[in-house]
């Protein structure tokens, strides 16, 4: 066996094939379509992009990967409005659970205030002296 450092693009067709086969073995035909969709919203104030949020829906789950608000617009409710927009879209998409991660120096309190619960944490990740938190929120109409 030889292990070689490789480019992601060269490996993806192989990995896609492996995971597709796993899905075919594990799930019925109606579950084979991964039903992936990117959800993204921006908040503009006076034609200036004040904040943005991006998430990926897969099956019954949405994972929020990015949420950022420009410093000049913090404490104006921009982040809350972005969370509300993506959660409303998630409900329309029949999402049941939203997940996200944050670090100790980011916005843990913000997410807790919005009903997210910590289900895991790793100390000294991604660097010594900080903690990475894993959060989830069950949503329903």
From TrEMBL:
Keywords: Acyltransferase, Transferase. It holds the Pfam family Acetyltransf_10. The keyword Nucleus does not apply. Its EC number is 2.3.1.-. It is an enzyme of class 2 (transferase). It comes from the Bacteria. GO terms for molecular function: acyltransferase activity. Residues 1-140 form the N-acetyltransferase domain. This is GNAT family N-acetyltransferase.
